[in-house]
Amino acid sequence: MFDWIKKALGGAPKIDPYEQFVLEFVAECRRLNRLPKSYDPQARAFVFSRGDAGDMTIQLHNAFGTWLERDVAGRKALIERFVQPVIESSNAATLSAEDLPRELMPGIRSHAQISSLMLNNWIEGAPVDDNHATVWHRFVGDMVACVLRSQPNSLSQMTRHNLTFANLTFEQAMAQAMANFRSSLPSLVFQSMDGGLFGSNNLEDQQSAMLLLEPGKDYVLPAIEGVPVALAPTRNLFYLTGSANLAGLVKLLDIAAKANQMPHFCSPTLLQWVDGRWSEFHFEPGSENDIRQRDIALGQLATDYEAQRQLLDRFHAKRGEDIFVAGLMLYRAKDSQVTFSVTTLASGTTSAMTDCAPSFRIACSR
What we know:
Distance between the termini: 51 Å
Number of domains: 3
Radius of gyration: 23 Å
Mean pLDDT: 84
Strand content: 15-25%
Largest sheet: 6 strands, antiparallel
Low-confidence stretches: 4-10, 355-366
Number of helices: 10
Helix content: 25-40%
Strand order of the largest sheet: 8-9-11-10-12-13
Number of strands: 16
């Protein structure tokens, strides 16, 4: 009965920062006359309808993390810059078969990001088929190459449906995208990070696409020792050092360890340029750096597995399907270098869906 006194003494009720961010996002959408179709508070994602092209899911965690770091004016500007490309890429009616080839750009993304986007779209009612999922080809490690549509304010992943609409195969679209990329490529700027490590971010959201270029030919290499070793932790950051520079390699590993906490996460995988292509770089087997590198990789696999397990649970529940997707936990015995996984099946379960990396040792308990 005295709640009104508490409120009077305490002033205006404090609003949760994330709730404030969502309110500002919706207000900006309303200002642009393009409200989302639905909102999932558990996934922290909005869904926008694209008509026959299916729905588009917009995750908010990257933008919210950046929003938290800004002052009032900076937050307003960020919301405007964030919402405008969302509206732009969700407007399927603007897709033109004639203009699309000129708008294509290449992209490097994690396979998990592509799959999670597809599952989110399925949950929100998009057609459950490959035609409306991002079309991609495996690149190296956990990364894939895809084709993006570049508009003034946005980059959106192209589906097989989009490419068929423009009468393009994936190979034709990627060739056109690479031609567009090279013709619009500014001079790459590398900044010294000390210890023989160099960083580049002047290509902004196209930074990870540097992996589709040939170092030393498409761009001038900085002063590195040995063959190039690279890391694209996010789609807008690219780091480079030399294979003969241990200090630089360790710095790359430090960045890889926290990569999945960065906005627009791409991959924690270190790559080396050998024989005209990128391949995975590994430290000396059994070394401290090798153990740490494997821990980072396995930890990311477990994170990706859990995120997609939750999405699959939601997808099956929406379809009324009684399918159990087993959880996965990583363990290591004290003073051991061997990591193993444990999955627990529900009582009475006779089969379950699992997708474990071959490097895991699987132990099942009921």
